[in-house]
Amino acid sequence: MPASWPTSLTRPGSRLLVADVAGLVGRLPSGRVLTAEDSLTAYLHDEGEWAVFGMPCAVVRAESTTEVAEVVRWCVETRTPLVCRGAGTGLSGAANAIEGSVVLSFERMNAILEVDELERWARVQPGVINDDLRAHVAEVGLWYPPDPASSPWSTIGGNVGTNAGGMCCVKYGVTRDYVLELEVVTGTGEITRLGRRTAKGVAGYDLVGLIVGSEGTLAVVTEIVVRLKPLPRVPITVAGYFDSLVDAGRAVAKVAESGISPSALELVDRYCLEAVDAWKHMGLSVDASVVLIGRTDARGEQGDWEAAELARCFEKGGATFAAISSDEQESEALYAARRLAYPAVERLGPVLTEDVCVPKGRVPEVLGRIEEIGKAHDVLIANLAHAGDGNLHPLIIVPAGDEDAKARAHDAFGDIIDAALAAGGTVTGEHGVGTLKLEGLRKELSPASLALHHAVKEAMDPHGILNPGKAIPSQT
I want to staple 237 with a disulfide (CB 3.0 to 4.6 A). Which of 77, 309, 331, 402 is the partner? Predict the structure, then answer.
Protein backbone atom coordinates (compact mmCIF):
# COMPACT_ATOMS: atom_id res chain seq x y z
CA MET A 1 0.00 0.00 0.00
CA PRO A 2 1.43 3.44 -0.87
CA ALA A 3 2.79 5.33 2.13
CA SER A 4 0.35 8.19 1.46
CA TRP A 5 -2.70 6.03 2.11
CA PRO A 6 -4.13 6.28 5.63
CA THR A 7 -4.51 2.99 7.45
CA SER A 8 -7.37 3.96 9.75
CA LEU A 9 -10.23 6.42 9.68
CA THR A 10 -10.33 8.98 12.47
CA ARG A 11 -12.42 12.06 12.97
CA PRO A 12 -10.80 14.83 10.93
CA GLY A 13 -9.52 17.95 12.59
CA SER A 14 -9.40 16.84 16.22
CA ARG A 15 -8.19 14.14 18.58
CA LEU A 16 -10.92 11.55 18.94
CA LEU A 17 -12.05 10.90 22.50
CA VAL A 18 -13.57 7.44 22.92
CA ALA A 19 -16.46 7.99 25.28
CA ASP A 20 -17.49 5.63 28.03
CA VAL A 21 -20.32 3.69 26.39
CA ALA A 22 -21.97 2.75 29.69
CA GLY A 23 -24.17 5.81 29.38
CA LEU A 24 -25.29 4.70 25.93
CA VAL A 25 -26.02 1.17 27.11
CA GLY A 26 -28.14 2.58 29.92
CA ARG A 27 -30.35 4.55 27.52
CA LEU A 28 -31.35 1.59 25.37
CA PRO A 29 -33.12 -1.75 25.92
CA SER A 30 -30.98 -4.74 26.74
CA GLY A 31 -29.15 -6.34 23.84
CA ARG A 32 -29.11 -3.30 21.59
CA VAL A 33 -25.47 -2.29 22.16
CA LEU A 34 -22.48 -4.44 21.20
CA THR A 35 -19.08 -3.57 22.68
CA ALA A 36 -17.04 -6.78 22.64
CA GLU A 37 -14.33 -6.51 19.99
CA ASP A 38 -15.16 -9.85 18.39
CA SER A 39 -18.77 -8.63 17.98
CA LEU A 40 -17.66 -5.40 16.30
CA THR A 41 -15.53 -6.88 13.53
CA ALA A 42 -18.50 -7.69 11.27
CA TYR A 43 -19.43 -3.99 11.21
CA LEU A 44 -16.07 -2.40 10.39
CA HIS A 45 -16.33 -1.73 6.67
CA ASP A 46 -18.32 -2.08 3.47
CA GLU A 47 -17.14 -3.67 0.19
CA GLY A 48 -15.05 -0.70 -0.96
CA GLU A 49 -11.65 -2.32 -1.47
CA TRP A 50 -8.89 -0.54 0.51
CA ALA A 51 -11.22 2.15 1.83
CA VAL A 52 -9.91 3.05 5.28
CA PHE A 53 -11.74 2.19 8.49
CA GLY A 54 -11.24 2.23 12.25
CA MET A 55 -12.49 0.37 15.32
CA PRO A 56 -15.79 1.69 16.75
CA CYS A 57 -16.45 1.89 20.46
CA ALA A 58 -19.87 0.28 19.99
CA VAL A 59 -22.39 -1.04 17.49
CA VAL A 60 -26.07 -0.30 18.11
CA ARG A 61 -28.75 -2.51 16.54
CA ALA A 62 -31.69 -0.15 16.96
CA GLU A 63 -35.29 -1.30 16.63
CA SER A 64 -37.19 2.01 16.53
CA THR A 65 -36.87 5.66 15.61
CA THR A 66 -36.97 6.70 19.27
CA GLU A 67 -33.98 4.44 19.94
CA VAL A 68 -32.14 6.00 17.01
CA ALA A 69 -32.86 9.47 18.44
CA GLU A 70 -31.41 8.41 21.80
CA VAL A 71 -28.24 7.26 20.05
CA VAL A 72 -27.90 10.55 18.17
CA ARG A 73 -28.41 12.60 21.34
CA TRP A 74 -25.77 10.58 23.18
CA CYS A 75 -23.35 11.07 20.32
CA VAL A 76 -24.02 14.82 20.37
CA GLU A 77 -23.43 14.99 24.12
CA THR A 78 -20.18 13.02 23.92
CA ARG A 79 -19.10 14.33 20.49
CA THR A 80 -18.84 10.77 19.23
CA PRO A 81 -18.95 10.19 15.46
CA LEU A 82 -21.99 8.24 14.27
CA VAL A 83 -21.82 5.96 11.21
CA CYS A 84 -25.02 4.48 9.77
CA ARG A 85 -24.92 1.03 8.19
CA GLY A 86 -27.34 -1.01 6.10
CA ALA A 87 -26.15 -4.33 4.66
CA GLY A 88 -22.57 -3.16 4.11
CA THR A 89 -22.72 -3.74 0.33
CA GLY A 90 -21.46 -0.26 -0.56
CA LEU A 91 -18.36 0.21 -2.69
CA SER A 92 -16.94 3.54 -1.55
CA GLY A 93 -16.26 3.24 2.20
CA ALA A 94 -19.26 5.38 3.18
CA ALA A 95 -20.36 2.87 5.86
CA ASN A 96 -16.86 2.27 7.22
CA ALA A 97 -16.38 2.66 10.95
CA ILE A 98 -14.42 5.63 12.29
CA GLU A 99 -12.03 5.04 15.18
CA GLY A 100 -14.01 5.40 18.42
CA SER A 101 -17.35 5.90 16.62
CA VAL A 102 -20.75 4.35 17.14
CA VAL A 103 -21.93 2.26 14.20
CA LEU A 104 -25.72 2.33 13.94
CA SER A 105 -26.94 -0.82 12.21
CA PHE A 106 -30.45 -0.97 10.73
CA GLU A 107 -30.53 -4.76 10.41
CA ARG A 108 -33.44 -4.98 12.88
CA MET A 109 -35.43 -2.08 11.39
CA ASN A 110 -36.47 -4.13 8.37
CA ALA A 111 -40.27 -3.94 8.19
CA ILE A 112 -42.48 -3.06 5.23
CA LEU A 113 -44.93 -0.93 7.18
CA GLU A 114 -47.62 -0.01 4.64
CA VAL A 115 -48.47 -0.24 0.94
CA ASP A 116 -51.04 2.10 -0.62
CA GLU A 117 -52.21 0.50 -3.86
CA LEU A 118 -54.33 3.47 -4.95
CA GLU A 119 -51.66 6.13 -4.43
CA ARG A 120 -48.90 3.69 -5.36
CA TRP A 121 -46.43 4.09 -2.55
CA ALA A 122 -44.86 1.94 0.15
CA ARG A 123 -43.66 2.98 3.61
CA VAL A 124 -40.64 1.01 4.79
CA GLN A 125 -37.91 0.96 7.39
CA PRO A 126 -34.34 1.47 6.14
CA GLY A 127 -33.24 -2.12 6.73
CA VAL A 128 -35.67 -3.58 4.15
CA ILE A 129 -33.84 -5.48 1.41
CA ASN A 130 -34.45 -4.04 -2.06
CA ASP A 131 -35.59 -7.33 -3.62
CA ASP A 132 -37.84 -8.12 -0.63
CA LEU A 133 -39.72 -4.86 -1.25
CA ARG A 134 -39.99 -5.66 -4.95
CA ALA A 135 -41.38 -9.14 -4.25
CA HIS A 136 -43.83 -7.79 -1.67
CA VAL A 137 -45.37 -5.12 -3.91
CA ALA A 138 -45.39 -7.43 -6.95
CA GLU A 139 -48.10 -9.42 -5.18
CA VAL A 140 -50.46 -6.48 -5.77
CA GLY A 141 -49.22 -5.73 -9.29
CA LEU A 142 -46.80 -2.94 -8.35
CA TRP A 143 -43.09 -2.41 -8.86
CA TYR A 144 -40.21 -0.54 -7.25
CA PRO A 145 -37.88 0.29 -10.18
CA PRO A 146 -34.43 1.15 -8.72
CA ASP A 147 -32.41 -2.06 -9.01
CA PRO A 148 -28.72 -1.91 -8.13
CA ALA A 149 -26.84 -5.11 -8.96
CA SER A 150 -26.72 -5.70 -5.19
CA SER A 151 -30.55 -5.66 -4.93
CA PRO A 152 -30.73 -9.21 -3.49
CA TRP A 153 -28.67 -7.98 -0.52
CA SER A 154 -28.63 -4.17 -0.33
CA THR A 155 -31.11 -2.21 1.78
CA ILE A 156 -33.46 0.61 0.85
CA GLY A 157 -31.77 2.79 3.46
CA GLY A 158 -28.38 2.15 1.89
CA ASN A 159 -29.84 2.84 -1.56
CA VAL A 160 -31.14 6.17 -0.23
CA GLY A 161 -27.75 6.96 1.28
CA THR A 162 -25.93 6.68 -2.06
CA ASN A 163 -28.83 7.53 -4.40
CA ALA A 164 -28.38 4.08 -5.95
CA GLY A 165 -29.35 3.43 -9.56
CA GLY A 166 -28.99 0.09 -11.27
CA MET A 167 -29.88 -1.59 -14.50
CA CYS A 168 -33.34 -0.07 -14.98
CA CYS A 169 -32.27 3.51 -14.34
CA VAL A 170 -31.59 4.25 -18.02
CA LYS A 171 -35.36 4.43 -18.47
CA TYR A 172 -36.81 4.67 -14.99
CA GLY A 173 -34.36 6.82 -13.05
CA VAL A 174 -32.53 6.45 -9.73
CA THR A 175 -33.52 6.23 -6.08
CA ARG A 176 -34.04 9.99 -5.67
CA ASP A 177 -36.79 9.83 -8.32
CA TYR A 178 -38.81 7.44 -6.10
CA VAL A 179 -38.42 8.86 -2.58
CA LEU A 180 -41.52 10.85 -1.63
CA GLU A 181 -41.08 11.28 2.10
CA LEU A 182 -38.51 10.58 4.81
CA GLU A 183 -38.63 10.30 8.56
CA VAL A 184 -35.25 11.42 9.87
CA VAL A 185 -33.39 12.11 13.06
CA THR A 186 -31.52 15.38 12.68
CA GLY A 187 -27.95 16.08 13.72
CA THR A 188 -29.32 17.53 16.97
CA GLY A 189 -31.41 14.45 17.80
CA GLU A 190 -34.85 15.71 16.75
CA ILE A 191 -37.33 13.48 14.89
CA THR A 192 -39.06 15.04 11.88
CA ARG A 193 -40.63 14.17 8.53
CA LEU A 194 -39.59 15.65 5.20
CA GLY A 195 -41.43 15.61 1.89
CA ARG A 196 -45.01 14.56 1.19
CA ARG A 197 -46.99 11.69 -0.32
CA THR A 198 -49.23 13.66 -2.65
CA ALA A 199 -48.75 13.36 -6.40
CA LYS A 200 -47.66 17.00 -6.53
CA GLY A 201 -46.17 19.36 -3.97
CA VAL A 202 -43.62 22.15 -4.23
CA ALA A 203 -43.85 23.91 -0.86
CA GLY A 204 -40.50 24.55 0.78
CA TYR A 205 -37.01 23.44 -0.15
CA ASP A 206 -36.47 19.91 -1.48
CA LEU A 207 -34.95 18.55 1.71
CA VAL A 208 -35.76 14.99 0.69
CA GLY A 209 -33.69 15.40 -2.46
CA LEU A 210 -30.88 16.82 -0.35
CA ILE A 211 -30.84 13.89 2.07
CA VAL A 212 -30.92 11.24 -0.68
CA GLY A 213 -27.32 10.66 -1.70
CA SER A 214 -25.82 12.40 1.33
CA GLU A 215 -24.29 9.15 2.66
CA GLY A 216 -25.45 9.63 6.24
CA THR A 217 -23.70 12.99 6.65
CA LEU A 218 -26.80 15.24 7.00
CA ALA A 219 -29.41 13.20 8.90
CA VAL A 220 -30.24 9.65 9.99
CA VAL A 221 -33.03 8.16 7.89
CA THR A 222 -35.41 5.98 9.91
CA GLU A 223 -38.38 5.60 7.55
CA ILE A 224 -38.84 5.94 3.78
CA VAL A 225 -41.92 6.37 1.60
CA VAL A 226 -41.16 5.29 -1.95
CA ARG A 227 -43.13 5.77 -5.15
CA LEU A 228 -44.28 2.61 -6.97
CA LYS A 229 -45.19 1.87 -10.57
CA PRO A 230 -47.32 -0.81 -12.22
CA LEU A 231 -45.46 -4.03 -12.99
CA PRO A 232 -43.95 -3.81 -16.48
CA ARG A 233 -44.46 -6.43 -19.15
CA VAL A 234 -41.96 -9.27 -19.63
CA PRO A 235 -39.07 -7.60 -21.47
CA ILE A 236 -37.63 -8.47 -24.85
CA THR A 237 -33.87 -8.98 -24.71
CA VAL A 238 -31.41 -8.11 -27.47
CA ALA A 239 -27.78 -9.27 -27.34
CA GLY A 240 -24.89 -7.82 -29.30
CA TYR A 241 -21.36 -9.21 -29.54
CA PHE A 242 -18.40 -6.89 -30.16
CA ASP A 243 -14.68 -7.26 -30.78
CA SER A 244 -13.76 -4.20 -28.70
CA LEU A 245 -14.94 -1.90 -25.95
CA VAL A 246 -14.81 1.03 -28.36
CA ASP A 247 -17.16 -0.69 -30.82
CA ALA A 248 -19.60 -1.46 -28.00
CA GLY A 249 -19.35 2.18 -26.93
CA ARG A 250 -20.21 3.30 -30.46
CA ALA A 251 -23.31 1.12 -30.34
CA VAL A 252 -24.32 2.78 -27.06
CA ALA A 253 -24.03 6.16 -28.74
CA LYS A 254 -26.13 4.89 -31.67
CA VAL A 255 -28.88 3.81 -29.26
CA ALA A 256 -28.83 7.28 -27.70
CA GLU A 257 -29.07 8.89 -31.14
CA SER A 258 -32.04 6.69 -32.06
CA GLY A 259 -34.23 8.28 -29.38
CA ILE A 260 -35.53 4.99 -27.98
CA SER A 261 -35.62 4.34 -24.23
CA PRO A 262 -34.49 0.79 -23.51
CA SER A 263 -35.44 -0.50 -20.08
CA ALA A 264 -31.83 -1.67 -19.71
CA LEU A 265 -28.63 -1.38 -21.71
CA GLU A 266 -25.78 -3.20 -19.99
CA LEU A 267 -22.19 -3.86 -21.00
CA VAL A 268 -20.29 -6.96 -19.85
CA ASP A 269 -16.84 -7.89 -21.09
CA ARG A 270 -15.34 -11.34 -21.59
CA TYR A 271 -13.41 -11.25 -18.29
CA CYS A 272 -16.69 -10.86 -16.40
CA LEU A 273 -18.57 -13.53 -18.34
CA GLU A 274 -15.73 -16.01 -17.90
CA ALA A 275 -15.64 -15.25 -14.17
CA VAL A 276 -19.39 -15.93 -13.91
CA ASP A 277 -19.00 -19.18 -15.86
CA ALA A 278 -16.14 -20.36 -13.69
CA TRP A 279 -18.26 -19.72 -10.59
CA LYS A 280 -21.79 -20.67 -11.64
CA HIS A 281 -21.18 -22.91 -14.69
CA MET A 282 -23.89 -21.12 -16.67
CA GLY A 283 -22.35 -21.80 -20.08
CA LEU A 284 -22.44 -18.12 -21.02
CA SER A 285 -18.90 -17.50 -22.29
CA VAL A 286 -19.21 -16.21 -25.85
CA ASP A 287 -16.94 -15.65 -28.81
CA ALA A 288 -16.75 -11.90 -28.23
CA SER A 289 -14.66 -9.43 -26.24
CA VAL A 290 -17.72 -7.47 -25.11
CA VAL A 291 -21.46 -8.14 -24.91
CA LEU A 292 -24.20 -5.51 -24.84
CA ILE A 293 -27.50 -6.61 -23.31
CA GLY A 294 -30.39 -4.41 -24.31
CA ARG A 295 -33.98 -4.72 -23.11
CA THR A 296 -37.31 -3.14 -23.87
CA ASP A 297 -40.49 -3.50 -21.84
CA ALA A 298 -42.63 -1.39 -24.18
CA ARG A 299 -45.89 -3.03 -25.13
CA GLY A 300 -47.11 -4.48 -28.43
CA GLU A 301 -45.80 -3.09 -31.69
CA GLN A 302 -43.76 -0.44 -29.90
CA GLY A 303 -41.83 -3.12 -28.04
CA ASP A 304 -41.19 -5.10 -31.22
CA TRP A 305 -39.97 -1.94 -32.97
CA GLU A 306 -37.68 -0.96 -30.09
CA ALA A 307 -36.13 -4.45 -29.99
CA ALA A 308 -35.47 -4.35 -33.73
CA GLU A 309 -34.03 -0.85 -33.41
CA LEU A 310 -31.69 -1.97 -30.63
CA ALA A 311 -30.39 -4.75 -32.86
CA ARG A 312 -29.88 -2.28 -35.73
CA CYS A 313 -28.00 0.12 -33.46
CA PHE A 314 -25.75 -2.70 -32.30
CA GLU A 315 -24.98 -3.60 -35.91
CA LYS A 316 -24.32 0.04 -36.83
CA GLY A 317 -21.91 0.27 -33.92
CA GLY A 318 -19.89 -2.66 -35.22
CA ALA A 319 -21.44 -5.76 -33.65
CA THR A 320 -20.18 -9.03 -35.07
CA PHE A 321 -23.52 -10.55 -34.03
CA ALA A 322 -26.81 -9.05 -32.87
CA ALA A 323 -30.05 -10.89 -32.25
CA ILE A 324 -33.39 -10.61 -30.51
CA SER A 325 -33.75 -13.46 -28.05
CA SER A 326 -36.64 -15.82 -28.63
CA ASP A 327 -35.76 -17.89 -25.56
CA GLU A 328 -36.90 -16.24 -22.31
CA GLN A 329 -34.83 -18.62 -20.19
CA GLU A 330 -31.68 -17.83 -22.19
CA SER A 331 -32.24 -14.09 -22.01
CA GLU A 332 -32.87 -14.22 -18.25
CA ALA A 333 -29.65 -16.18 -17.81
CA LEU A 334 -27.67 -13.55 -19.71
CA TYR A 335 -29.24 -10.78 -17.63
CA ALA A 336 -28.55 -12.73 -14.44
CA ALA A 337 -24.90 -13.01 -15.48
CA ARG A 338 -24.68 -9.23 -15.49
CA ARG A 339 -25.96 -9.13 -11.90
CA LEU A 340 -23.53 -11.86 -10.84
CA ALA A 341 -20.52 -10.35 -12.59
CA TYR A 342 -19.16 -8.27 -9.72
CA PRO A 343 -19.17 -11.00 -7.05
CA ALA A 344 -17.76 -13.40 -9.65
CA VAL A 345 -14.85 -11.09 -10.45
CA GLU A 346 -14.20 -10.61 -6.72
CA ARG A 347 -13.31 -14.30 -6.58
CA LEU A 348 -10.30 -13.60 -8.85
CA GLY A 349 -8.64 -11.27 -6.32
CA PRO A 350 -9.12 -7.90 -4.62
CA VAL A 351 -11.17 -5.60 -6.87
CA LEU A 352 -11.02 -1.81 -6.85
CA THR A 353 -14.32 -0.74 -8.38
CA GLU A 354 -14.78 2.45 -10.37
CA ASP A 355 -18.11 4.22 -10.83
CA VAL A 356 -17.66 7.12 -13.21
CA CYS A 357 -20.47 8.51 -15.35
CA VAL A 358 -19.88 10.32 -18.66
CA PRO A 359 -22.08 11.77 -21.42
CA LYS A 360 -23.40 8.96 -23.63
CA GLY A 361 -21.72 10.40 -26.70
CA ARG A 362 -18.32 10.17 -24.94
CA VAL A 363 -18.70 6.52 -23.89
CA PRO A 364 -16.58 5.12 -26.80
CA GLU A 365 -13.77 7.58 -26.08
CA VAL A 366 -13.68 6.92 -22.35
CA LEU A 367 -13.85 3.13 -22.76
CA GLY A 368 -10.87 3.38 -25.09
CA ARG A 369 -9.06 5.55 -22.56
CA ILE A 370 -9.74 2.98 -19.80
CA GLU A 371 -8.05 0.30 -21.93
CA GLU A 372 -5.03 2.59 -22.37
CA ILE A 373 -4.88 3.25 -18.62
CA GLY A 374 -4.90 -0.48 -17.85
CA LYS A 375 -1.98 -1.04 -20.22
CA ALA A 376 -0.06 1.99 -18.97
CA HIS A 377 -0.22 0.80 -15.35
CA ASP A 378 0.04 -2.92 -16.16
CA VAL A 379 -3.18 -3.81 -14.36
CA LEU A 380 -6.07 -6.03 -15.39
CA ILE A 381 -9.27 -4.03 -15.85
CA ALA A 382 -12.53 -5.89 -16.44
CA ASN A 383 -15.46 -3.79 -17.57
CA LEU A 384 -19.12 -3.60 -16.59
CA ALA A 385 -21.38 -0.68 -17.34
CA HIS A 386 -24.89 0.65 -17.13
CA ALA A 387 -23.96 1.69 -20.62
CA GLY A 388 -27.29 3.24 -21.55
CA ASP A 389 -26.74 6.17 -19.20
CA GLY A 390 -22.96 6.35 -19.45
CA ASN A 391 -22.33 4.86 -16.00
CA LEU A 392 -19.08 2.87 -16.32
CA HIS A 393 -17.78 0.36 -13.77
CA PRO A 394 -14.19 -0.60 -14.62
CA LEU A 395 -13.07 -3.31 -12.18
CA ILE A 396 -9.35 -3.17 -11.41
CA ILE A 397 -8.31 -6.70 -10.39
CA VAL A 398 -5.17 -7.18 -8.29
CA PRO A 399 -3.44 -10.43 -7.29
CA ALA A 400 -3.86 -11.01 -3.57
CA GLY A 401 -0.84 -9.84 -1.59
CA ASP A 402 0.79 -7.96 -4.47
CA GLU A 403 1.53 -4.54 -2.94
CA ASP A 404 3.15 -3.17 -6.10
CA ALA A 405 0.08 -4.10 -8.15
CA LYS A 406 -2.10 -2.47 -5.51
CA ALA A 407 -0.17 0.79 -5.88
CA ARG A 408 -0.51 0.64 -9.67
CA ALA A 409 -4.24 -0.02 -9.30
CA HIS A 410 -4.56 3.07 -7.12
CA ASP A 411 -2.84 5.16 -9.80
CA ALA A 412 -5.10 3.70 -12.50
CA PHE A 413 -8.13 4.48 -10.35
CA GLY A 414 -7.12 8.14 -10.24
CA ASP A 415 -6.41 8.28 -13.96
CA ILE A 416 -9.87 6.89 -14.78
CA ILE A 417 -11.45 9.60 -12.65
CA ASP A 418 -9.40 12.22 -14.49
CA ALA A 419 -10.48 10.76 -17.86
CA ALA A 420 -14.14 10.92 -16.84
CA LEU A 421 -13.86 14.52 -15.67
CA ALA A 422 -12.01 15.51 -18.87
CA ALA A 423 -14.93 14.06 -20.85
CA GLY A 424 -17.45 16.19 -18.95
CA GLY A 425 -18.41 13.42 -16.56
CA THR A 426 -18.58 12.88 -12.80
CA VAL A 427 -16.60 10.83 -10.29
CA THR A 428 -19.58 8.70 -9.22
CA GLY A 429 -22.87 7.74 -10.78
CA GLU A 430 -24.37 5.65 -7.99
CA HIS A 431 -21.82 4.20 -5.53
CA GLY A 432 -21.25 7.47 -3.73
CA VAL A 433 -18.09 9.31 -2.72
CA GLY A 434 -17.42 7.70 0.67
CA THR A 435 -13.69 8.02 1.27
CA LEU A 436 -12.42 6.60 -2.03
CA LYS A 437 -13.61 9.51 -4.20
CA LEU A 438 -12.87 12.50 -1.96
CA GLU A 439 -9.94 13.77 -4.00
CA GLY A 440 -11.80 13.17 -7.23
CA LEU A 441 -14.74 15.21 -5.97
CA ARG A 442 -12.37 18.00 -4.97
CA LYS A 443 -11.34 18.18 -8.65
CA GLU A 444 -14.97 18.10 -9.81
CA LEU A 445 -16.34 20.84 -7.53
CA SER A 446 -15.48 24.51 -7.82
CA PRO A 447 -14.32 26.22 -4.60
CA ALA A 448 -17.66 28.04 -4.40
CA SER A 449 -19.60 24.80 -4.76
CA LEU A 450 -17.46 23.07 -2.15
CA ALA A 451 -18.10 25.96 0.24
CA LEU A 452 -21.86 25.54 -0.25
CA HIS A 453 -21.56 21.84 0.56
CA HIS A 454 -19.79 22.67 3.81
CA ALA A 455 -22.36 25.33 4.68
CA VAL A 456 -25.16 22.78 4.29
CA LYS A 457 -23.23 20.23 6.35
CA GLU A 458 -22.64 22.72 9.17
CA ALA A 459 -26.30 23.78 9.19
CA MET A 460 -27.69 20.24 9.34
CA ASP A 461 -24.99 18.64 11.47
CA PRO A 462 -23.84 21.50 13.72
CA HIS A 463 -21.90 19.21 16.07
CA GLY A 464 -20.11 17.39 13.25
CA ILE A 465 -21.04 13.88 14.44
CA LEU A 466 -22.72 12.46 11.32
CA ASN A 467 -20.27 10.33 9.32
CA PRO A 468 -17.48 12.93 9.45
CA GLY A 469 -14.76 12.73 6.83
CA LYS A 470 -17.04 11.13 4.24
CA ALA A 471 -18.86 12.30 1.09
CA ILE A 472 -17.39 15.82 0.83
CA PRO A 473 -13.71 16.75 0.80
CA SER A 474 -12.30 19.18 3.35
CA GLN A 475 -11.89 22.81 2.37
CA THR A 476 -8.15 22.75 3.06
Answer: 331
- Beta-carbon contacts of residue 124 (< 8 Å; ≥ 6 apart): 111, 112, 113, 133, 156, 223, 224, 225, 226
Q: What domains appear along the chain, each with residue ranges and CATH number?
A: 22-108 (3.30.43.10), 112-230 (3.30.465.10), 236-422 (3.40.462.10)
Angle of helix 363-376 relative to helix 245-258, nearest 10 degrees?
A: 160
Check residue 457 and give its pLDDT.
98
Q: What interhelical angle do 270-280 and 328-346 show, nearest 10? A: 90
pTM for this prediction: 0.93
Geometric angle at alpha carbon 109, from 44 and 355, rounded to 5° = 50
Whole-angstrom Cα distance, residue 220 to residue 28? Answer: 17
Q: Count other Cβ atoms within 10 Å, centred on residue 361.
A: 15
The tens digit of pLDDT for each residue in 231-248 reads 999 899 999 999 999 999
Residues 6+ apart with CB under 8 A from 200: none
